[in-house]
Design a protein that fits this description.
This protein is α+β, with helices and mostly antiparallel strands. It contains nine helices and nine strands.
Length: about 280
């Protein structure tokens, strides 16, 4: 196992302009794999029994100019693709995406904002202050054993202040669902055509519009999600008659998703699925 991990980490050597930065990269990865708590850099020092003087060096690593995060992600995509273990359906790989909230107590931490907690448990507070993360994984495996290998994990909300620090990045007008679609599209560009499985939280108009914009020329990403039964669509409005002055209609006749299961039965394919052993 150690030799396998070493061979994977060696793939990232050329992403760093300095050998010292690469060594700190190895320390960070091993710290992430062996830590038992989630206290940031302190967890790495505890897990690897490092000296206290390493704390400042680890902090400087995350702000170093000796590497580019985009190059590291590209190299990771290449490693996953060359593994030959990506699960595929009809020449499309399978990507999984979801979001999670991490509570933070720091008052001046970048990216921290007020987040709503969806829970039926009355012991949980309805709102927390923390980070909104969006995670993306690719399904790999053979025969009956499948695993989700991490592809990306980013903070999706509360980063508008960072746009003032770095003009090359702009997150002012993007939302959590849009960022998830953009991350999946980036992965599909490097890994190949893909299906993206999401829960129904991500089924929004901005996400679908962004997907249509990204896949306008190349159809490399499809979203598989669950739609609400009360979901509605609208036909294109009729052209104005021109006989009288009136405001043009923006929407036509209403079509309910639930009604399509009756009116368009021949367009559906029936199948069986096993969920939670049933």
């Amino acid at each position: 196992m150690i030799s396998f991990i070493e061979s994977i980490l060696a793939e990232f050597r050329f992403c760093f302009s300095r050998k010292a930065s690469y060594k700190w990269f190895v320390v960070v990865i091993l710290g992430l794999m062996s830590r038992v708590d989630k206290l940031g850099v302190t967890s790495f020092i505890r897990a690897l029994s490092l000296k206290g003087s390493c704390y400042e060096c680890l902090l400087h690593f995350f702000r170093s100019d000796a590497y580019n995060l985009a190059d590291i992600k590209t190299r990771w995509y290449s490693i996953i693709r060359r593994s030959g273990l990506l699960l595929s359906f009809e020449n499309r790989i399978l990507l999984l995406g979801d979001g999670t909230k991490a509570a933070k107590e720091g008052k001046h931490m970048p990216g921290v904002q007020k987040l709503y907690q969806e829970s039926e448990n009355c012991s949980k507070a309805p709102y927390i202050f923390g980070h909104m993360f969006g995670g993306l994984a690719a399904v790999i495996g053979k025969r009956t054993s499948y695993f989700a290998v991490p592809v990306s994990m980013d903070i999706h909300l509360g980063l508008s202040s960072m746009s003032d620090w770095d003009e090359s990045q702009s997150y002012r007008s993007t939302t959590h669902v849009v960022r998830m679609v953009e991350n999946a599209y980036e992965a599909a560009v490097h890994l190949g055509k893909a299906y993206l499985c999401l829960d129904r939280y991500f089924l929004t108009v901005p996400a679908l519009k962004r997907l249509a914009e990204l896949c306008k020329e190349t159809d490399i990403l499809h979203i598989v999600t669950r739609a609400k039964m009360n979901c509605k669509a609208y036909e294109k409005p009729d052209a104005p008659s021109g006989k009288k002055r009136e405001r043009p209609r923006k929407k036509g006749e209403t079509i309910k998703l639930k009604s399509l299961f009756d009116s368009e039965q021949d367009s559906f394919i029936k199948g069986k699925a096993t969920l939670y052993g049933k």
